[in-house]
Amino acid sequence: MSAPEVPPPSGDVVLDVRDLRMRYGTKDVLTGVSFTAGRGEVLALLGPNGAGKTTTIEILEGFRMRSAGEVSVLGEDPAHAGEAWRARLGVVLQSWRDHGRWRVRDLLGYLARFYGPYSTAEVRRPWDVDELIKVVGLTDHARAKVQTLSGGQRRRLDVAIGIVGRPELVFLDEPTAGFDPHARREFHDLVHRLADFENTTVLLTTHDLDEAEKLADRILVLDEGTIVANGSAEQLARELTTQAEVRWTAEGRRHVHAVTEGDPTGFVRELLAHDSGVTDLEVKRASLEDTYMSLVHRAETDQAEPRDEAVPTSTTEQTDEGQS
Ligand SMILES: Nc1ncnc2c1ncn2[C@@H]1O[C@H](COP(=O)(O)OP(=O)(O)OP(=O)(O)O)[C@@H](O)[C@H]1O
């Protein structure tokens, strides 16, 4: 299942991935991944462990050679792109463990200098270090040694290192793993700021559905080597086979009806027109988590047997249409 992807206007295409394939030995990990991303878009790549998220990101970053397919990142093939291209990318890996004795401001100032030669009239590089430290919320720790930072502060530093060159595209691999709710919210603000004010394109991986829903303009679900869904959180939830459940009480009995086609409003109107004794009416739309579980479940079912559109998903199985 997938919302048809509307490609960005051609001058705005930052990522263009077509039929990407990756094989490790005899194991096919990516079996045909295709998607695009436009300038200033935030994409979340979701998928169960081992789905191929890190492999995909590493190929796009130019750290891993693909087996087949076409990949364009900022207009270049990452397998052959040079230093000037790399200076336009920001990479935030799962954790940064080096430079423990450096002080935060000194380390960022040192790294920032490498980006100066890649400054252009459109993009002034690097980021002013004090401003950057403020943006990531580390002003009080600017003189602290890296090894004394807490896990969350260190992750902010990881992000600062990733964006010090004012990248046009940032890759974030599980950026908020280990964050407390406050740090998480601040990080979300930072990503929104990058996308909205700096027009930065962001591709992040996460296992956190709530985070994907809050942050991403578009969610890509990767499972068993292919993209099984591509759309906004709302689009994905709306397109689920079971779109909503309507529950109500009438004559002392609780009823449930699964609305599988269109908007549930029509059903609710009809119900109220026919039955004046309806109370405790509730409409529950599928959450992103319902959608995600259903997609991954469906992808696994498709692997095991030929696809049959009439087979109910786990969500429809839970409902009791007979009562309505
Ligand atoms: N260098 C490698 N050699 C062989 N197999 C590999 C290699 N790197 C990854 N794999 C395999 O490829 C598959 C996809 O791994 P990948 O790390 O891309 O998944 P992921 O979606 O990022 O997983 P997670 O959510 O657990 O981080 C896994 O089955 C993994 O074992």
UniProtKB/TrEMBL annotation:
Start and end residues of each ABC transporter domain: 15-249
Q: Where in the cell is it found?
A: Cell membrane
The answer, when asked if Transport is one of the entry's keywords, is yes
Q: Which SUPFAM superfamilies match?
A: P-loop containing nucleoside triphosphate hydrolases
Can the keyword Transport be found in this entry's annotation? yes
What are this entry's molecular-function GO terms? ATP binding
- Membrane topology, as annotated: Peripheral membrane protein
Matching entries from Pfam families are given as:
ABC_tran
Per UniProt, the ranges with Basic and acidic residues bias are 299-310
Disordered: annotated segments: 299-324
The entry's keywords: Antibiotic resistance, ATP-binding, Nucleotide-binding, Transport
Q: Which family does the record claim for this protein?
A: Belongs to the ABC transporter superfamily.
What is the official name of this protein in its record? ABC transporter ATP-binding protein
